[in-house]
Design brief:
heterodimer, A: mainly alpha, B: mainly alpha, Arc Repressor Mutant, subunit A, 2 domains, about 70% helix, about 0% strand
């Protein structure tokens, strides 16, 4: 007999097997509540993360400005002396 | 009149309305409404997930995963098809993920007890449990995608269109995959001499 026909017959028989019965509703509800509590706990973390991000951006802006205006301290040594009138 | 946004024939107006109300209530934060959906659909999902794992504990975990995933994706449900179809798509995805995990772990299942199954040869019919066990064992030798396609066709009696709906593959892709999977399964079954072992299939 053709092997695939045999498998099809096996499948037909397998479709009638007795299935296990259990209830997952309490577990699913529990998971839903747990995730919602976790999400609620995440709120302060999200708030402080946002606060830290704002602080970091202010520091970055200030440091860019500072970087642009910074002067090499050694430049003073090699800079030509200021002419000063003796009298 | 069907509440679903397609021309597809409604399968049961009463169930559709019940589902729709429970979905709306769940989205509004009523967990009891989602519990009602779980209770309504868990026998069907258990049946489907049993095809993906014959271990009771694993099956239970898979069913739980399906409903938890459904709850958190409920916002994406557009009522284009009955809720049951949407749920079975999630279930197929969860089952496929389980097959892929098994592939990664390279789990080898023990060969089912052929002698006990063959003892039914006088009755000219297979013991459903033994037949399912043997078929599961054979399908486990295939890669995850082939296994998914054949599991849905053989054990859930799905048509090519149903497989395409559940997996998100195109119809020609399903046809091609099924044809290749059948060829591979035939080779495995011939190697294991399945036909010779089961005279009840005559």
């Amino acid at each position: 007999m053709d092997t695939l026909k045999t498998i099809e017959k096996l499948a037909k028989a397998a479709q009638n097997e007795a299935l296990p019965m259990f209830d997952v509703s309490s577990y699913v509800l529990g998971q839903m509540r747990t995730v919602q509590v976790q999400r609620a706990n995440l709120l302060p973390i999200e708030f402080f993360t946002a606060l830290a991000a704002v602080a970091a951006s202010i520091v970055i802006v200030l440091s860019v400005v500072a970087w642009q205006t910074i002067v090499n301290p050694m430049a003073q040594l090699i800079a030509p002396l200021q002419e000063s009138s003796l009298w | 009149m069907s509440i679903y946004k397609t021309d597809a024939a409604s399968y049961n107006i009463a169930v559709e309305n019940l589902d729709y109300n429970d979905i709306c209530d769940s989205l509004a934060g009523d967990q009891k409404a989602f519990e009602r959906l779980v209770i309504r659909y868990q026998p069907r999902i258990i049946r489907l997930m049993w095809r993906f794992s014959r271990d009771r504990q694993t099956c239970e975990r898979l069913v739980q995963d399906v409903f938890v995933e459904a709850y958190f994706s409920l916002k994406t449900y557009k009522a284009k098809a009955p809720f049951e179809h949407w749920l079975s798509r999630i279930a197929s995805r969860v089952g496929y993920r389980h097959f892929k995990e098994q592939d990664k772990e390279k789990q080898t299942l023990p060969l089912p007890d052929f002698d006990i199954a063959a003892a039914d040869s006088q009755q000219q019919q297979a013991d459903p449990e033994k037949a399912a066990e043997l078929l599961y064992w054979l399908l486990a030798k295939l890669p995850a995608t082939d296994r998914l396609a054949l599991t849905l066709v053989y054990l859930e009696d799905c048509s090519i269109k149903d497989v395409a709906d559940k997996t998100g593959w195109t119809t020609p892709a399903v046809k091609m995959r099924l044809s290749r999977a059948r060829k591979k399964l035939k080779e495995i079954a011939e190697k294991e001499k399945i036909s010779e072992r089961f005279e009840w299939t005559l």
